[in-house]
Amino acid sequence: MNRKLYNKFLDKSFTILGLVATLIGLVVLSALLIDVFTDGMGRLSWQFLMSYPSRRPEEAGILSAWVGTVWVMILTGLIAFPIGVMAGIYLEEYEKKTWFSNIIEINIANLAGVPSIIYGLLGLGLFVRVLALERSVLSGAATLAILVLPIIILSTREALRAVPFSIREASYALGATRWQTIRSQVLPAAMPGVLTGAILAMSRAIGETAPLITIGALTYVAFLPTSPISSEFPYISFQGIFDAFTVLPIQIFNWVSRPQKGFFTDAAAGIIVLLMITFIMNGIAVWLRYRYQKKIRW
Q1: Given this model, what pLDDT does residue 75 score?
Q2: What is the per-residue pLDDT for 142?
Q3: How far is CA 176 from the centre of its chain?
Q4: Which residues in the chain show pLDDT less than 70?
Q5: For the CA atoms of the chain, what is the radius of gyration?
Q6: Which of 105, 143, 206, 241 could pair with 123 in a Cys bridge, judged by C-beta atoms 3.0 to 4.6 Å apart?
Q7: Residues ≥6 apart with Cβ < 8 Å to 192
């Protein structure tokens, strides 16, 4: 009886401790958000969104920063998502369990915890110098893609592993090949989990500063990357991915390092815009995940 009461006491104590820990995190997060919104909401305006950075805080804007962020995030997703998903499919569905595959799995798991500045040094050496992509949007996106690849690969494997094996057996029984089974049955069923990993990966990438500073992203940019829409045939231009760029985290970091108080207000407004872009990107991914979940009937 005493043992039973003791176990109940431990369960209740753990529940209380977990609730307190959760509340502490929520309170700290709420305090930070309230402080940021209090300082930055008054600075948000169309002029702030459509103006270039300036040495005067009241005239400074984030046009080049938020456009650069959108460019980099779109390219990062286009590079990292298909490569990460295909790598996850191969490792989970095709790769045989050997000592070499075990080494690959261990390295992928370890890469997810490597400090981001290491990826910046890799991007500087590989993309900027060896491949001669210079300090371009493509270099930044490729560096961030390498940074988030382990997250996408691991989440893809976990999502595929969660699909009941009976689905595969039923597909094989109907005469489908392995690839047809993966493409038409397993991957659609695993897509909600895959997209969850993509959300986490892109949320990490959008806030990274160290890798982009390492490869030489600019802190002051008074121009935009070349538009992908051209007035001449074939009406599409890829010049923008080779242009110099900046992103919101770098612009915010630059402002908070300034002594003028007005730049702190600009930084708070920039944080709000960065949060809005993050929420929009995550909202699209959540919507796609919800659509896939509605189609699944196990």
Answers
A1: 92
A2: 92
A3: 35
A4: 1, 294-298
A5: 23
A6: 143
A7: 159, 289, 292, 293, 296
* Residues 240, 68: Cα–Cα separation, whole Å: 10
What's residue 298's pLDDT? 52
Half-sphere exposure of 63 (CA within 13 A, CB side): 16
How many whole angstroms from its chain centre is CA 273? 16
Q: Rounded to an integer, what distance in angstroms lies between the CA atom of residue 77 and that of residue 71?
A: 10
Structure letter (DSSP) for residue 227: P
**What pTM value is reported for the model?**
0.85
DSSP one-letter string for 9-52:
HHHHHHHHHHHHHHHHHHHHHHHHHHHHHHHHGGG-SHHHHTS-
Give bridge partners of residue 236 from the DSSP assignment: 229
Token pair 């935009």 in the structure block, residue: 224
First to last CA, the chain: 43
Helix, strand, or coil here: 229?
Answer: strand
Domains of the chain, by residue range, sit at 1-43, 45-295
Give per-residue burial for 170-203: e unless 16+ CB within 10 Å, then b: ebeeeebeeeebbeebbbebbbbbbbbbbbbbbb
Q: Where are the alpha helices (DSSP H) in 92-136?
A: 99-111, 116-123
Structure tokens belonging to residue 195: 């997209």
* CATH superfamily for domain 45-295: MetI-like (1.10.3720.10)
Q: DSSP character for 210?
A: H
State residue 81's pLDDT score.
Answer: 92
Amino acid code (one letter) for 265? T
Contacts of 181 (CB under 8 A, 6+ apart): 168, 171, 172
Between CA 177 and CA 181 the distance in angstroms is: 6
**Residue 224 DSSP code:** -
